[in-house]
Structures
1.
Amino acid sequence: MASPYLVVNASNKYYDIYDMNTGKKMALLYPREAFIIIDNEGVIWNIKIRNSAGKIVNVVVHDKENFIGDNCKPCYFFPYGKKVIDGREYETYLMRKAKNIYTPSADYWGGVAQNMLVASNNDIVGETHSTWKAIDYVKRSTDGKWVKVSGQGYDYGFVETGLEDGSMYYNIPFYGSW
């Protein structure tokens, strides 16, 4: 199984999200809305998405219209910007709210201030905490320098995306250019 990842509905279409096991409508996916793909097997997708009550729900969908494959793109297609850090180019993302950063073992590492940037070159989210996005660097608010997220034998960490706060382009705390 591939790692879970953060994606964006890159189409201008709305999609009713029905759970294939119950037939119940679970959510409505809006244009430019972010959600998590946990895994898939062919056209069967396990996703996490915010429902109309704002709660994150796990849904198994049968993608007969292929809306996920054709219209949903990984977040790295939509960075806020790009920055060369320590000789390597990274996609950067704006943190609209102060959020916590964790090591891969889910231990608190530190935080990122509101309106600061984080840098990453992937779309991966945590397997245990799927609303946490993998990052490599965080920009400090105190001096504007980039700091490598590392510790406990890891050279990366995870930042809370704030998906529980919002999933639309105008209110998700972890934001690119979607």
2.
Amino acid sequence: MLMAFWQVQRLTREINELERQAMETRTRLSHYEKYASRLGGSSVMMMGNIAGLSPEILPRAMMFAQFSNMASSMSAGQNVQMMKMSGMMPFTGNALTQYQLEMSAFARFKEESLKALKEQEINTMNEVEKEIQLELNSIETRLKEKRALLESSKNLLSEEARNDAPKFGLG
């Protein structure tokens, strides 16, 4: 009977630990989903979009915001220069009009580049989410198995207690 009691205690501790792990994993998954959602919903990642993300995701989001702004600006600048050098950008003769034309092209190229970078980051986040979901599924499977084992151990303990109980001549 003592062995069954210890088995119940051990399984209860293991179940509690697995439930804690499952809760932490669900929270982590939620943080990544929130970040991916913010990426998909905004044109540019800025501090306003980042504020409110979890401490686990915040450094990545900040680095991505800085990197995507810098990389897309560089790409847009290079594309505008290539257009000017290849003659694809018309020369207007008016400095203000020329500047507006170049800035318009720069903004369009930057937006396209930002969109591509965001898509890459969203795809990466989707892969991370899949890995976390697999981890959560594994934890939940082990939890289900431990709960079934706990129920069987409790039944065994009850049976042993009934069998070991004094009968006082009644049975």
3.
Amino acid sequence: MSGLWLIPGLACLFLGAVFLLLFRYLRSRQEEMDRTVKAQTWGKLTGTGSRTEYDYKNRSRIVHFGIYEYQAADGRHYSAASDFGYGNPDDVPGTGGNMVKILYDPDKPTKFAVAEERAISVSVWPTFKKVGIILMVIGVLLTALTAAGLLGVFDPILESMF
């Protein structure tokens, strides 16, 4: 009975570490985009594509992404697909015929981001960090309770209660 909280504690520690590592990876990717994606232009949605993604239980879902055409500062026209996915194809920026702000790397103009999608990404990443920290704290507390129980720290308290 004293090892009751060990497995949930270790699971919380593991999941917390996964969330924090995911946050760090996504943040470093965002920082790399911030360094290289400096030019901006307007583009239009020329089509949508879809791909199948899987969750941790191997359940599939279809996500839709935009294919945008834009003109870079060098005067050349580019067409590239966003890697940002939406559950509904009508949610893809530019679906209503509106122009969208495109941020791109002047050295590699096909490396781009839609400004609206980038803003969404930046607002979501701190949530990963918060969830990771909360899970780590819970994991440490549960693991510490288990260790204290196994060492008999609670024995005098339990004996005085009963």
4.
Amino acid sequence: MTSIRFVGVLLMAIAIFAGAATAQKKPAKKRATSKKPTPSSTTKTVPPLEVRAAREKVEVQVANVTRFVDVMGPIVQSIETLDQSAKTKKLPKATIDKNEATKLKVIEAIQNLKAGLSSLESEFRTKPLLQKYLVSIEGITDLAARSEDTALAGKYVASKEPLRDALKKLTDTLAAMPI
């Protein structure tokens, strides 16, 4: 009988402790499956090769126009200063000839810049994948032509403004194009 009591007490103790152990277990939470992609699971789409190549060409033209406007500033200022000085006082012939040669170089540089911008704009007009970005870049050839006309009219400092407008259009185009 002592053994039955001992076994009975033992079974009760096991039952009590087993019940307490299950009460302390936390139920497993079900993970909610989210339909939203996480940053690590999203796949990056690469734009077509034609768009990437055009973006690089736009970046090159942005660099060209920026550098040209920055370098052109002091040069055209000195051209116009020498022109004003030539009207008011007698300057040496060598200085006047050098100034005229500089004017021709500036006009030639604007024409070369215009050719690059015109080529870029026509590429956006002719390629179907690029035509949706044409709205942003359209008119850069006209702006370069206006810069050339202004320089030909002898207003060299004012000829930078249309190029700055073309630069704005180019940067707008870069912003619209995928990376």
